[in-house]
Amino acid sequence: MNIFEQRESNVRSYCRSFPTVFHRAKGALVYSESGKENIDFLAGAGALNYGHNNDYIKQKVLSYLDADAMTHGLDLHTAAKEKFLATFSEQVLIPKQLDYRIQCCGPTGTNAVEAALKLARKVKNRTGIFSFMGAYHGMTQGSLSVTGNTAIRSGIESFAQVTFMPYPYRLMDGFDTIHYIESVLNDIHSGIEKPAAIIFETVQAEGGIVVAPIDWIQQLRALCDRNDILLICDDIQVGCGRTGPFFSFERANIIPDMVILSKSISGYGFPMSLLLMKQELDQWQPGEHTGTFRGYQLAFVGGTAALEYRSSTDLEKVVRLKETFLRTFLTEEIAPLHPKIEIRGLGLIWGIDLAALDDGNFAKKIATRCFEQGLIIERVGRRDTVLKLLPPLTIEMPILRRGCTILKQAIEECLA
């Protein structure tokens, strides 16, 4: 029995799918202790958009450490935070005409979700929240309450203050989900009170790479405006350039009332989460939402460097080029392998839906075979029947092609 099985909690998860000891990583490649090379289509579940040990970001972090600069600062004013806030404002908010205040939350995305829900309830003086079927927002009490997976919510507590609405997914083909939500709000006999906010993802990543149509996102924004409801966009996994532009909601030309960022916002895999809110919503009292690690200094340094790197490399254009390759490969090379395979995605987040083939074992066999051949790929969606392609945005084209080739071969072998 190894030390992990002997001492680490049963709650461990990813290591069960990828049973090896990893040693080092660079770019889109991860190496085990044995020296085996693996192509990374997981990218820290979206925390490594800029790749492993990005040279530009690494040098900025090392220089900061070498100067004996602040490594912990609570929410004190520090030079690292000052530079990050200025850079984020100058490179992201001002060019996009977004007048958001920035709240540094606890180190992980779930804490920013908690903050958003608390603030929405405080501002609107209502307790209800609307979320969506298939949603994933985190594993702490508040964020779990707006997560749709009943298996992970089971036995925790009643979440009566949250109402789940239909998301525009193939299970709802032909069903007008926006009209349904409006009907619920306007029917005094629906039994459902007006919520303080609606929280949503423009792409349900853990939900199976379900991409919300642009017109649906726009209608959702309009519905919230008509009914005095705050719109919260969870951009934890699909923000920071994953879909092309910095924010995933930009393709719909809307402005959410709040935006939640984490994962790749630090640029280097450091823990960090932010809540962006419209100016008038910043109604917190000092210390009303707090935490010892609300603003990790190395994350500020990495986050600043990531924004600089994104600008200097024209990363949005790079993502568009790779998106074209992936879309073409998946629709022309993967989809024809079986008529029941469904392809969904945009930017550099794509899903191969195998739900129509079996209950999840088939997807598991493919992912296992991929790992044997040197490709790390995750399964998501209902019953884990969707293979999720989530490579670093910086992945080199030859490596991206090689990873896709391994994936195709694995599917062909398992189909045979």
Automatic annotation (TrEMBL):
<keyword id="KW-0614">Plasmid</keyword>
<keyword id="KW-0808">Transferase</keyword>
<keyword id="KW-0032">Aminotransferase</keyword>
<dbReference type="InterPro" id="IPR005814">
    <property type="entry name" value="Aminotrans_3"/>
</dbReference>
<dbReference type="Pfam" id="PF00202">
    <property type="entry name" value="Aminotran_3"/>
</dbReference>
<dbReference type="InterPro" id="IPR004637">
    <property type="entry name" value="Dat"/>
</dbReference>
<dbReference type="GO" id="GO:0030170">
    <property type="term" value="F:pyridoxal phosphate binding"/>
</dbReference>
<dbReference type="InterPro" id="IPR015424">
    <property type="entry name" value="PyrdxlP-dep_Trfase"/>
</dbReference>
<dbReference type="GO" id="GO:0045303">
    <property type="term" value="F:diaminobutyrate-2-oxoglutarate transaminase activity"/>
</dbReference>
<keyword id="KW-0663">Pyridoxal phosphate</keyword>
<dbReference type="InterPro" id="IPR015421">
    <property type="entry name" value="PyrdxlP-dep_Trfase_major"/>
</dbReference>
<dbReference type="GO" id="GO:0019491">
    <property type="term" value="P:ectoine biosynthetic process"/>
</dbReference>
<comment type="similarity">
    <text>Belongs to the class-III pyridoxal-phosphate-dependent aminotransferase family.</text>
</comment>
<dbReference type="InterPro" id="IPR012773">
    <property type="entry name" value="Ectoine_EctB"/>
</dbReference>
<dbReference type="InterPro" id="IPR049704">
    <property type="entry name" value="Aminotrans_3_PPA_site"/>
</dbReference>
<protein>
    <recommendedName>
        <fullName>Diaminobutyrate--2-oxoglutarate transaminase</fullName>
        <ecNumber>2.6.1.76</ecNumber>
    </recommendedName>
</protein>
<comment type="pathway">
    <text>Amine and polyamine biosynthesis; ectoine biosynthesis; L-ectoine from L-aspartate 4-semialdehyde: step 1/3.</text>
</comment>
<dbReference type="InterPro" id="IPR015422">
    <property type="entry name" value="PyrdxlP-dep_Trfase_small"/>
</dbReference>
<dbReference type="GO" id="GO:0047307">
    <property type="term" value="F:diaminobutyrate-pyruvate transaminase activity"/>
</dbReference>
